[in-house]
Amino acid sequence: MASKGLHTLNIFLIISIASILYGVQLPIRTETKKSLGYPKDSLLNFTELTNEYGYDSQEHTIVTEDGYILTMFRIVKGKNCIGRNREPPVILMHGLLQSSDSWLDAGPNAGLAYLIADACFDLWVGNCRGNYYSRRHVSLNPDTDNQFWQFSVDEIGYYDIPAMVDYVLDNTGAENVNYVGFSQGAGTFFIMCSERPGYCEKANMLIALAPAARQTNTRSVLYRFLMGTVYNIEGFLKKTGVGEMLPKGSFGQEFLAFFCHLNSLTGRMCNMGQSLLDAFHPGSVSGETTRVLYGHFPAGTSVHNMARYGQSMKRRDFAKFDYGKDHNLKLYGSEEPPKYNLSAVSVPVVTLYGRNDGLVDVKDVKWLMRKLPNVVEELEVEDHLWTHLDVTYSQFTSTMIFPKIHEHLQSNSNN
Ligand SMILES: *[C@@H]1O[C@H](CO)[C@@H](O)[C@H](O)[C@H]1NC(C)=O
Ligand SMILES: *[C@@H]1O[C@H](CO)[C@@H](O)[C@H](O)[C@H]1NC(C)=O
């Protein structure tokens, strides 16, 4: 029967995921990777990469109210920016299992971090808790304290996004920021607006790229299955002490980095895998980007956060984590998890979304837009094959999405 087959598959997945995460950390040394012919860019971090392409950048450390230590990068000046930077500063925030480096993997002609910096914006690129740049805490040890991994987008939106906004304002002396968020990077901004009165107004505007709030209509069967499985086995993983998912240096990530760089055939297979997870858009992600990006992806998150996505695809609203009636009552004072208050998203919102997005469906974006009180523009990307991951990895960002981003950043900036 189908359910029995699924059951077997689940057990198989439990065993492989557990062994991947629990036992097998397999970081390969950088020297070894160089000798194996890994592309150089896949081995560099944010500052090294930007410097290599002639962009001046800085590293900043931020501590959240609940003790997580986050890394933010700032591109001080775009290589092709003539004249002074515009104000206010811009915050750029990545999606699930990504890091700041995801904005660089497509190279200086397509990576959005380069394009925004080249247009003379003071660009700050964030990293949320749990990825390889933000895997630190003032008192918890991510390797031994499972408590470190008890977070999902609920906490990222409540603590990380406000901490980054405050830090950028303090550091630059600006009065507000312009915020560009992709997928989870936009969803967590809505959470901040709902839960932290006064914070939404610290942004002039939000540019939401394929924003992940409700995920009722996600089309990707593979993504649904993977996230649903993590949701189903979260309790089991927790008992065995597994709180972290797909960190850099794990067997899963190292395998992808190795396999995808090997040759053009394996590269195409990786591209195919990515399309199965999201949707097909032939030729959009270049071979070179595919060889590079798995050096920075997956960047790690918590099991709990992945489970959160598994859960949200089964719901029809955008709410906090559902722990079941009893625990909800204790935690929230109600049997149902509270819905996020999207009416509190007071900032002007611009949304760009792809018709062919397999992870954040157009129907859910439309649902979200109807809930937001201050939508300035919602625009479907002209290319009908535009997918979710195209936002960070397509070679066509400069024509497909950047002009709109640029237009709105410019009209919300001085000089
Ligand atoms: C990036 O690499 C440089 C040079 O190796 C190093 O000094 C820096 O600490 C690294 N930054 C991070 C955040 O890992
Ligand atoms: C949601 O936010 C709006 C705007 O801030 C506010 O007027 C309203 O009372 C909030 N609703 C709830 C249920 O908190």
From TrEMBL:
Keyword Lipid metabolism: yes
Keywords in alphabetical order: Hydrolase, Lipid degradation, Lipid metabolism, Membrane, Transmembrane, Transmembrane helix
Domain (Partial AB-hydrolase lipase): residue spans on this chain: 47-104
Domain of life: Eukaryota
Gene3D superfamilies tied to this protein: alpha/beta hydrolase
InterPro entries according to UniProt: AB_hydrolase_fold, AB_hydrolase_lipase, Lipase_euk
Keyword S-adenosyl-L-methionine: no
Regions crossing the membrane: 6-24
PANTHER family: LYSOSOMAL ACID LIPASE-RELATED
Family listed: Belongs to the AB hydrolase superfamily. Lipase family.
UniProt name for this protein: Lipase
Provenance organism: Loxostege sticticalis
